[in-house]
Write a structure and sequence with these properties.
single chain, 327 residues, Pseudouridine synthase, 11-stranded mixed β-sheet, 3-stranded antiparallel β-sheet
Length: 327
């Protein structure tokens, strides 16, 4: 039985099996990697192999001239030329022999992806707590703050996964978004969510609903409100999609309803979405578990004032543009 190499600095390896039929120009493992992951570049793969970052299931490092062997599983460690630090910190709220509960800040991804590797919740916790077997039981968006559950013990991991598969976890979120008094509050949103044209987005589609969210206002300030959101399902971006579909996009959302170019993060203005609490019956101990985030969204009054000022600034700019005669 093959076994993946041990993690390095909290980052586990990825793996791929060499197809039975190699490509026309694939006589070595290096050739295959350069074809399969062309965006990385041959020089980068050559350096990784020279560093021992590409190996077999027995841990044997593969040199750049290693021959292609059909069916062989190879493991490789990701690397980034540079990774910007995220100056926000997670908090561990609870830990036992089987379960860990973390309170994640905005902007921090849960797991490595794209341009994030070491600056992720999983890798930070692995390194900080020396927990090589740590695995997230569920995930929340990078832009969302709040609670994330982790399994610390492979033997009991599936019992926690089963809770989410059975929708036996009670999750509560909070969000700040525009206020619409004409909607029938509280309300329930059921719809079918699937992939949109852009890979960054999801969208509501025709067909049987696969998502279900209860939404209720908690507080209103002018044109803005704080909402309680209770998702009964866990589709990707579900809360952001449902709120945008209601005409109530969450404050600070750069993906819904309009995808904006990714820029340098503005740590002072995060997405106003928080995974506030989570409750379930522990499948190992049988105890009732309830956890609350220590974080809070911005004061509603501050959001209302900020957006009012931005709107006045936009109106002033438009008025000036209209008053300026054409050249």
């Amino acid at each position: 039985m093959s076994r993946a190499p041990a993690a390095r600095r909290g980052v586990g390896p990825s793996s791929v099996v060499l197809p039975q039929t190699p490509g026309a120009a694939e006589s070595t493992v290096l050739d295959f990697l350069c074809t399969r992951f062309a965006h990385i570049g041959r020089s980068a793969w050559t350096q990784r192999m020279a560093d021992g970052s590409v190996c077999t299931s027995t841990g044997e490092a593969l040199a750049p001239d290693a021959l292609y062997r059909a069916g062989m599983r190879i493991h490789y460690f990701r690397a980034l030329a540079s990774e910007a630090p995220i100056p926000l910190h997670e908090t561990v709220l609870y830990r036992d022999a089987h379960l860990l509960v973390a309170d994640k800040p905005h902007f921090l991804p849960v797991t490595p992806s794209g341009k994030y590797l070491h600056e992720t919740l999983l890798v930070r916790l692995k390194n900080r707590l020396a927990l090589n077997d740590l695995v997230p039981i569920h995930r929340i968006d990078r832009d969302t703050a709040g609670l994330v559950l982790f399994s610390t013990q492979p033997a009991t991991r599936n019992a926690y996964y089963a809770l989410f598969r059975a929708h036996a976890v009670d999750k509560h979120y909070e969000a700040i978004a525009p206020w619409n008094p004409d909607l029938a509050w509280p309300l329930t949103r059921r719809s079918r969510i699937g992939a949109a044209a852009h890979f960054m987005q999801q969208t509501e589609q025709d067909g049987a609903p696969n998502s279900w969210t209860e939404i209720a206002p908690l507080e209103v300030c002018g044109a803005w409100a704080r909402y309680a959101l209770r998702p009964h399902t866990g589709q990707r971006h579900q809360l952001r999609v449902h709120m945008a579909a209601l005409g109530l996009p969450i404050a600070g959302d750069g993906i819904y309803p309009v995808l904006t170019p990714e820029a340098v993060p503005d740590f002072a203005r995060p997405l106003q979405l928080l995974a506030r609490s989570i409750a379930f019956t522990d499948p190992v101990s049988g105890q009732t578990r309830h956890f609350e985030s220590l974080q809070r969204l911005r004061p509603l009054e501050d959001v209302a004032v900020e957006h009012a000022q931005a709107a006045r600034g936009f109106d002033h700019a438009m008025a000036c543009a209209l008053a300026t005669p054409p050249m």
